[in-house]
Amino acid sequence: MSSAKTKARRCAVQALYQWQMTGQNLKLIERQFFEDDRLKNAQKNYFIDVFHGVPKHLDKIDAAFVAYVDRTIDEIDPVERAILRIGVYELMHKPDVPYRVVINEGVELAKSFGADGSHKYVNGVLDKVAQEQRKIEIEAKKSK
Is 127 exposed, middle or buried (0-12, 13-18, 19+ CB in 10 A)? Predict the structure, then answer.
């Protein structure tokens, strides 16, 4: 049984994937998710925040992980790209979510939606971004 926040992330991956592939209006995609009742048992505010936050901060998000990928961002599988963008968004804008949770959620999303082995790729990239974005949190964990 997944948490309401995990369910929100799962829906956000699907919605971002749709946005990346179609370029549709964010509000239109969001409305489809509400009307289709896909957000049942999901933390709706978290879904809205992540789904709208990623496109809003897209340049900074992509810049935060481009150095850690082995291809251009456009060449990354669209599912993996959506997962990475959500994870990086959370690392940058959700300090209340521990970095290990962000990475683990990204890995689980990749296992659910990504190609075989994509979870390893997502794990590696998010881990490197976390080292940069969450230095203080990581150092605090090491000193315990």
Answer: middle
State how far Cα 79 lies from the chain centre. Answer: 10
User: Any idea where the domains of the chain sit in the sequence?
Assistant: 4-142
Rounded to the nearest 10 degrees, the angle between the axes of helix 44-56 and helix 4-22 is 40
pTM, full prediction? 0.95
Kindly report, residue by residue over 4-50, the tens digit of the pLDDT.
999 999 999 999 999 999 999 999 999 999 999 999 999 999 999 99
Residue type (1 letter), 59: D
pLDDT digits (tens, 9 = 90+) for 63-87: 999 999 999 999 999 999 999 999 9
Token pair of 125 as six digits: 């990239």
Answer yes or no: are the C-beta atoms of 93 and 53 closer than 8 Å: yes
The CATH number given to 4-142 is 1.10.940.10
Cα Rg of the chain (Å, integer): 15
